[in-house]
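Subject: for your reference before the review

Hello V.,

The reviewers asked for a structural picture of the protein, and I figured it would be easier to keep everything in one thread rather than splitting it across files. Below is the amino acid sequence we used in the manuscript, unchanged from the supplementary table.
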Amino acid sequence: MAKRSDIRKEMEKMPYEPLLPIEKSLILWSLVIGGVLMVVLIWMSYTFFPAGT
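And here is what came back from the structure prediction:
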């Protein structure tokens, strides 16, 4: 438990650092690629593996 409080104290001492523009861009691109791939995989699932009714 003491280690947790030490980490908390150290993190409180750290200055706030906003994200760099390149970091924001990388986050945005990874979310966009993830969303597109999700749509593609769902489409492939419904197209090539239809549920048997």
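For the response letter, the relevant points are probably these. The chain has a mean pLDDT of 90. The chain has two helices and no strands.

Happy to draft the paragraph if you're swamped.

O.
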